Amino acid sequence: MFIMLSNLLDERVYNGLRSLMVSQEYTRKKVARTKKAEDVSSIILSAFFWRQARDIVKICAPILKVLRLADREGVTMGLIYELTDRMIESISSIESIDSARLEEVKNLCVERWNMLHSPLHAAAFMLHPIWKSKSPQLDPEVHAGWIDLIERYTCGDIKKQGVLIDEMDMYKSMEGLFALPIAKDESRMHNDVKWWETFGASVPNLQKLALRVLSQGSCASPCERNWSTFSLIHTKRRNKLQPKNVEKLLYIHTNLRLVCKIKERGFQKMEVTLEMIEKEEDDRRLLALQEEHDGEIPSSSSYTSVESHALEDIVDQEDIAIDDGDDDGDDDDDDDDEDDDEDDEDH
């Protein structure tokens, strides 16, 4: 729906549709005087419809950006938490839409985030070097998620938890290799996994945990591929396999495909950065409507051009009636000709 509405709000489509509804060529056609055509025409010529369509696009644009991030493969876990906060802030800052409506949408987003949120998101937010300047440990929700994660990771081992907390303090204060000027280079911090591989040797236990957390995927595509492979293995004819055997066959099939891809393309790290997200062509095309003509119905000279077309092309009802009479007469003549032809064939 978002893509359809954003394409409708394109200036060429917008002006073209409105001009068509008042054009002489269209209004002379019989189909233009049907009930459905009149309903469509009233919608297209309604400023309220276009204003509502623009409001929907403006609200959905930040949500779409986060959904596309979460649904792509690669290292995205460290970006989800911050970009979700930005999404809610972006929705709250829209000025041209009723505050009650925005509050309702924001509450829906918060409820969905509370349902999907896990300690992994909070830990990844803390461990991503690009967010270090935001002091994420001061956020109670983030800190609670981090503590929950290390308890699960260490299986309740107090000694291991203490080691991780001490090493986290070294990371916060930028000691050891973290103190190097190149480690503080923001362009390198965007590649979180590579950054931890390069500069995390001073804190080996935290480095291992950070690499595992930040390398986690946040999309469901791998699961869907597994389900597709499962449907190939477990078929109607081959349905007596035990679950353990199916799992083994699925494991072998998936890893063979992975090995083949590595041999063909080589090993590629799928790191996702903020710059990559901002420079994506599809996002720029779909989200341009949110940034341009803020608070206005999308048009440059749309109303004036449509009004000029209307003044030029509006046809009087009498002329339409005359045209109808001519058309009916032509139809009658055609029917007479067809009857004469049938009589000739009978004779």
Automatic annotation (TrEMBL):
GO terms for molecular function: protein dimerization activity. Residues 313-347 have a biased composition (Acidic residues). Residues 298-307 have a biased composition (Polar residues). Pfam families: Dimer_Tnp_hAT (PF05699). Residues 191-256 form the HAT C-terminal dimerisation domain. Residues 292-347 are annotated as: Disordered. PANTHER family: BED-TYPE DOMAIN-CONTAINING PROTEIN, OSJNBA0013A04.12 PROTEIN. This is HAT C-terminal dimerisation domain-containing protein.
